[in-house]
Amino acid sequence: MSVSGVQSSSTDRGGQLKIYLANPRSFCAGVVRAIDVVRRAIQVYGRPVYVRHAIVHNQLVVDELTAAGAIFVEELSEVPAGSLVVFSAHGVSPAVRAEARQRGLLVLDATCPLVAKVHLEVARYARDGYHVILVGHREHVEVQGTFGEAPATISVVDSVEGVARLEVPDGPVAYVTQTTLSVDDTAEVVAALKQRWPGIREPAKADICYATQNRQDAVKRLAARCRVIVVVSSRASSNGNRLAEVAWARGCRSNLVEMADEIRDDSLDGDVGITAAASTPEELVQACVRRIQWLVPGTAVQELSGKSEEHFFPLPESLLAAARGLGLDVGSGNARAAARASGNQ
Ligand code: SF4
Q: The CATH number of 114-196 is which of 3.40.50.1580, 3.40.1010.20, 3.20.20.80, 3.50.30.10?
């Protein structure tokens, strides 16, 4: 059998390797909802539907939605006046919302509700006179959107050294975190913040999203069994890169791949774990399984047990109402979201 147009390599390791699949892996509820928003919008409003920024960080998803009638842009100035535009799962700043209003664009917001919650926290802190410290990566699109909630009273920091260098005005201080960093990722920075500002206000519940934490915990379980861990993820995905770092920190050789054909024969020198970022479709994981089994015939597959995820986020009410107005049976959009979020797609 040929995969990706190259000849099968014959090895003598058949039956010696095993593939372990992380659980959970792949799509989270926020990603499922964002993709559904675009699909439903095309169905309800017709093509094209403009989407600001990659709806989620995965090229396969973007390509499929493009083929269905989506046009991806980076700036609202690329969207013709009066058109429909979807904001991606990563969220946007109030300035972007204002620009959309000013240009008369019809907006559907696919911002993940967990990201939207952080935006609300920042706006509330700023209104109450706090200086807000956002723990995250300045260049990440989610952080840029959150920063825009209160640019005059917010600082971004991603390291303990950065905490020491922060210049913050006298007065109350609060912190929030980027959703796609794990509790482990932020622990040292948060400890440094608390040391410098013992009275710092912290979120009632960690901003870290359930999907980020669960996928990282699943990688730790993989790392107990595997020497090599393949992370299927866009290189632009924050949570995918963090998964690779977790595997590396546990002493595994981590291999971040966007497509199955990036997996090389010489990288398979022990049992292999596979996981995937929250924005990676399960079909890419299965392609990686087939690729390894082609490179090493006879390789068995075992899915590890893990935390079940029942989260779902309903579609925007305006979209559901428009769909019902056309007589489309969309329910609340929840059933499909729940099924996919738990990996039963
Ligand atoms: S990873 Fe978490 S914050 Fe990001 S879209 Fe998924 S559920 Fe939302």
A: 3.40.1010.20
